[in-house]
Specification:
six-stranded parallel beta sheet, 9 helices, alpha/beta
Length: about 250
């Protein structure tokens, strides 16, 4: 009880210290550590994934409270597809249940980021239906990154661009001359969205593992030791405070 009171007091202090004029518009999150969290407790990986999934709605509420406009949640990477069939099916079931729960809340507009063709038809259809259900929602936009790999995204964007140019009758030389950053960005999963200002990765790992390599070229990174299921509002506020104190020069 006394510890909870201390945390509440600390959270209030962190909130007061935040520079509201220097908050990120777009926060990307690599939700890492569910399996290791489960291992420390001697429970199944599925239990860890479910616990991590239950954290998401709470996290989105924190983002609403700090007026963040866009959140990207990396729920399933292309590398995750290499896991055992049993674990992958369990993970996909949890992801679908999570996306459906977010849709039922009626508070957020969901947008799929990734290649849905890499998952089975049933899970793909359930995710698409849940995302469609939120199409007219206002408020926080939430990218759900499922079947996402950064290299695959860039390759897909290049292929789409080349195909569109070829359909327009352009020659290979004309297509090559037309390649530019703006054209590639127009074919990314996040086209029309601002790039992430802040990327948070939990679990203590200090790498991006292919998370939005094109979009994060000028992002600020914050690496947190806590496993995702243990990620607290205090940790989130610390990340925002750290971000607000940085001098963002965008390479200039």
């Amino acid at each position: 009880m006394f510890k909870d009171l201390l945390y509440q007091a600390y959270e209030r202090r962190l909130t007061r210290e935040l520079d509201k004029q220097r908050m990120p518009r777009h926060v990307g999150v690599i939700l890492d550590g569910n399996r290791r969290w489960a291992k420390t407790l001697g429970v199944t990986a599925a239990h860890g994934h479910r616990r991590g999934a239950s954290k998401i709605r709470e996290f989105l509420t924190w983002c609403e409270e700090t007026n963040i406009e866009l959140v990207t949640l990396w729920l399933l990477s292309t590398d995750n597809l290499e896991r055992s069939s049993d674990e992958l099916k369990s993970l996909l079931d949890i992801i679908v249940a999570t996306v459906e729960s977010l849709a039922r809340a009626g508070r957020w507009r969901l947008h799929l980021v990734g290649d849905p063709s890499v998952i089975d038809e049933k899970h793909r259809a359930d995710i698409a239906a849940a995302v469609e259900q939120t199409r007219d929602n206002e408020g926080l936009l939430v990218n759900v990154a499922i079947g996402y790999g950064g290299r695959n995204e860039i390759l897909g964007a290049i292929r789409e661009f080349i195909a569109s140019q070829a359909e327009a009758g352009k020659t290979p030389r004309e297509i090559a001359d037309a390649v530019c950053a703006e054209e590639i960005e127009a074919h990314l999963y996040t086209r029309g969205q601002p790039d992430p200002d802040l990327v948070i990765r939990t679990s203590g790992e200090q790498r991006l593992s292919g998370f939005m390599p094109w979009q994060t070229v000028h992002s600020e990174y914050y690496f947190c030791e806590a496993y995702w299921p243990d990620f607290r509002r205090t940790d989130f506020l610390r990340a925002l405070r750290d971000y607000a104190q940085r001098d963002r020069r965008h390479g200039r």
